[in-house]
Amino acid sequence: MELTTKDRAALDATIRSAEQLCRAEISVYVGKVDGDDARAFATSLHNTLVAPARSILIMVDPERHVVEVVTGGYVRRNLTDDETALAVEEMTRSFADGDLAGGLTRGIRLLADHARA
């Protein structure tokens, strides 16, 4: 599963719209996880963002079938672990059908909707 140029452009527009809705920064990483601990890798990526407290990072390793969502403290005020888990379930369901871009789009929208104040 890979993202086409058209997919990337559509995801960028989805991210910008979602960011306006929830007032948080949203980043997506699709690629190989370094090391054995996907959560630690996702957290290290999240920590490199400009404003990690106000950020949501979605990390997907399509080869290992791993999805991690890391949220900052500001975001967690409105976005619960259960809501994040629902978004991950929605994404993985789409990924299982071979729809990486669609799964990311749905996941981003769900996270933003739940994360808004």
Summary keywords:
Diaminopimelate Epimerase, Chain A, domain 1; 3-stranded mixed β-sheet; globular; DUF5130
Which range best describes the helical content: under 10%, 10-25%, 25-40%, 40-55%, 55-70% or over 70%? 40-55%
CATH top level class name: Alpha Beta
The coarse overall form would be globular
Largest sheet: 3 strands, mixed
Total helical segments: 5
Portion in strands = 15-25%
For the biggest β-sheet, the strand order reads 1-2-3
Number of domains: 1
- Main structural class: alpha+beta
Termini separation (Å)? Answer: 34 Å
Organism: Nocardioides thalensis
Pfam families: DUF5130 (PF17174)
Protein name: Putative membrane protein YgcG
InterPro entries: DUF5130 (IPR033437)
List the helices and strands and how they pair.
Layout: H1 5-22, E1 25-30, H2 38-47, E2 55-61, E3 66-71, H3 73-76, H4 81-96, H5 100-115
Parallel strand pairs: 1-2
Antiparallel strand pairs: 2-3
Helix pairs in contact: 1-5, 4-5
